[in-house]
């Protein structure tokens, strides 16, 4: 099993090769959680995530074996980390990505100099394809999480946290395959044994929690709808990190999609931090009540990456706004006559609601011949504001339906 000395060795090798990311205090989140909350901003790391740490350490530790190049499999972040590490080492990299991997992450990986091949319907399939290809071509395969050298590299995140905040009480880490939390827990428990390390998973794919319940890694069936936290949608934790999870991780908690979306929005609005869904999961757990935090305790949230697809970000923000009562959707029936829409819009203006989108629906099934249906999206201040708008519309005799 990997030891703390391996993490220290990784830190020495990675010095000046990766960014020492900042640990930032958040007054806003501290007030909301009634604790001292700090953000470890791996979203500012090279390649936009922590993954470059493990990839660089793996490559630099095996320079004599990688002349012909390396192969990796990834949904996105590990791909970019390996591409960057390979470029720095001056060797070619081939990345196997699932066929559904986002175009933006494909292009970012290519921009770092790697060859991208879309093969496999899942990350597990892509990993198996990559392993076979590495064996057939006598190249090293760099696993995204099930590799002790990769885990040691990721553990340097934990070292930096405890160097910057020696009295940290709780470190909350997103969990996919388990490599990041295994490395962080190993470092944190060696330096400050009383510190708690808690993992967070999307409720739609609770593989690490299931593994701890069963006492062994086991594949879970992820929900078909997927998750906005795609980077932690790993259906089975790795064999290498699992013993460290068993021994050192205090708990694994789950968060739902609405909580993750709300956390992404809060990080963006309150701290101007762009975090992908997985990276926002620790904040979702902290503010969503998934875990108990002692008043005044020092809490570190590992913001693991910021590589979010632009189109997905738009949907995540919209979902977060709805959860916070900042957007309101409704349909209303209006008499199809001049001035009826103007009256409705005047009422909404009196309620200080901002119209974001509006759509007129005529000649549709279910709409009476002398009526029109109007679909509206409003920007609102919160749920009390929405209630006030509804009361005003009911008082004016409007027939409407929230959506």
Automatic annotation (TrEMBL):
Q: Does the keyword Lyase apply?
A: yes
What cofactor does this one take?
Answer: pyridoxal 5'-phosphate
> One Pfam annotation, family name?
PALP
Q: Which regions span the lipid bilayer?
A: none
Q: Where is the ACT domain?
A: 329-403
Documented EC number(s): 4.3.1.19
SUPFAM superfamilies under this entry?
ACT-like (SSF55021), Tryptophan synthase beta subunit-like PLP-dependent enzymes (SSF53686)
Q: Which domain of life is it from?
A: Archaea
Q: List the keywords (alphabetical).
A: Lyase, Pyridoxal phosphate
List, alphabetically, the InterPro entries matched: ACT-like_dom_sf, ACT_dom, ACT_ThrD-II-like, Ser/Thr_Dehydratase, Thr_deHydtase_catblc, TrpB-like_PALP, TrpB-like_PALP_sf
Similarity section: Belongs to the serine/threonine dehydratase family.
Tell me the PANTHER family matching this sequence: L-THREONINE DEHYDRATASE CATABOLIC TDCB (PTHR48078:SF6), THREONINE DEHYDRATASE, MITOCHONDRIAL-RELATED (PTHR48078)
**Protein name according to UniProt:** threonine ammonia-lyase
